[in-house]
Amino acid sequence: MSEYEYVAFQAVDGPLNDEQLEFAQRQSTRATVSRWSLSVEYHYSSFRGDVNGLLQNGYDVYLHHSNYGSREIRLRLPGGIPVPKSVWKKYVIGGNLCWKADDKGGGGILSLCPYYDSGELDEIWETQPSLDAAISLRARLMSGDLRAL
């Protein structure tokens, strides 16, 4: 449990359909949910929704940060990782960068989750620049550009 936590999802490839929107609305009673985004801010609580479920059901980017040092970005890559496994393995070191392939199809979810102790990073008060950077990173990765990693 944290003192402050912010969670945001963004649809990039297209809006959620009615079924996906209904699923998203069930994930948090406190979230602001639309066909293009879901966001929620917590004080003394945490998001308990299905992050990967939301990414597999319409949203493409997930951003999470808390004031106790947790930072995470998850990117839905519908076409999978667009580089050979031999190249990709050079980037997967430790638990900070993880790939979870879909059970069906060639897509999956890339998770970047570094951890910092409280006070090591500046507080993030404007989240949109971080979300925009994650969307840009996703586009670059989908085009095969691994320089951002």
Overall average residue pLDDT: 85
Biggest sheet details: 7 strands, antiparallel
Distance between the amino and carboxyl termini: 29 Å
Portion in helices: 10-25%
* Spatial ordering of strands, largest sheet: 2-3-1-4-5-7-6
The number of distinct β-strands equals: 7
As residue ranges, the low-confidence spans are none
Output the radius of gyration: 15 Å
Strand content: 15-25%
Structural class per helix/strand content? alpha+beta
Tally the helices. Answer: 4
The succession of helices and strands, N to C, reads EHEEHEEHEEH
Question: How many distinct domains?
Answer: 1
Molecular shape:
globular
Which key features would you list for this structure?
149 residues; alpha+beta; seven-stranded antiparallel beta sheet; 4 helices; globular
